[in-house]
# Entry
Amino acid sequence: MSRRPSPDPSPDPVRFPSSATANPPLPDPGAKRREIAMFLILAVVIWPILSVAVVGGYGFLVWMSQIIMGPPGPPPV
# Structure
């Protein structure tokens, strides 16, 4: 019976670079400014327009349903 040689426990550094040997990504200097600008655009422009559109769409839906089915309340006697 022959024993198989054990494989090398360290992986090939060319094929599998470790995080310690790889260069970390450089921080983007304008990333924080862009994130703040995107937040302000969302908070000040997009969300108010979207909320007005949703409430207006619901009101239009109720209005059209009342035109088709009549006003709410008990049927006339």
User: Anything to note?
Assistant: The radius of gyration is 32 Å. The mean pLDDT is 83. The CA atoms of residues 1 and 7 lie 18 Å apart. Helices lie at 31-69.
